[in-house]
Specification:
This protein is of the alpha+beta class. The chain contains five helices and seven strands. The strands form two sheets. Strands 4, 5, 6 and 7 form a four-stranded antiparallel sheet that branches. The protein has a three-stranded antiparallel sheet with strand order 1-2-3. It holds the Pfam family Peptidase_M24.
């Protein structure tokens, strides 16, 4: 598939609306984060998420929200959470949202910690740092999507974390982006354009059952 076809957009596509969708999706994530507390279950967190979506006027979901606690933070979006997991007093959580505003897609994810959990906090911080390191490499070196994920793996290992190879990023656009078949960022053989590709980073502790996730749109 040619680079042009992998970055095709619809006739409604507007970069300003893409930025707004991104901003509103981050606002939704922070709203959900504010409603999550020790003792809550993932199912209860989903109910809280639905309330936030109604309040913000979310047009629709383009993928279901993923809210993972504790050991479930090592799972990818393709894997079901282990049932019955509740957020502990000193625990880790990540939120992954794919929302549509003004017919444009937002997709963001972040990890946070409740209570006192230094190792888990270090993992959450590392996912965020790794994302920004990789995004900076894209901006300064013009790396291809494939090279970005090779760089991410090397950096994660150097930082002491296990890198999840199953997460490779993807296209966004005006809804539905899937009609353009952009494929995975991690398989892209050329430099991704600004404002179209989501960089996803998922890492885990090398031996303990917790991990962290961070994603956002690559923007110059």
């Amino acid at each position: 598939m040619s680079p042009i076809s992998r970055e095709a957009v619809g006739t409604r596509f507007d970069p300003t609306l893409m930025r707004r969708a991104r901003e509103q999706t981050w606002l939704a994530l922070r709203g959900i984060q504010a409603r999550i507390h020790p003792g809550i279950s993932e199912d209860e967190a989903q109910v809280a998420a639905a309330e936030v979506f109604r309040e913000l006027g979310v047009e629709r979901l383009w993928h279901p929200p993923y809210i993972r606690f504790g050991p479930n933070t090592t799972k990818t979006y393709r894997q079901r959470s282990d049932p019955g997991v509740r957020l502990g007093e000193n625990d880790i959580c990540f939120i992954d949202l794919g929302l549509v505003f003004d017919s444009h897609e937002g997709d963001v994810g972040d990890t946070f910690v409740v209570g006192e959990a230094p190792e888990r906090q270090a993992c959450a911080d590392a996912a965020r740092t790794l994302f920004h390191d990789v995004a900076d490499a894209w901006r300064t070196q013009g790396l291809s999507g494939e090279a970005l994920y090779a760089f991410a793996e090397q950096r994660a290992q150097a930082m002491g974390w296990r890198f999840n190879h199953a997460i490779k990023g993807h296209r966004l656009g005006d809804f539905p982006h899937s009609v353009h078949k952009g494929g995975n960022l991690g398989d892209l053989e050329h430099t991704p354009s600004s404002g179209l590709w989501v960089l996803e980073i998922q890492i885990a502790h090398p031996s303990e059952p917790f991990g962290a996730f961070y994603e956002d749109l690559l923007e110059a």
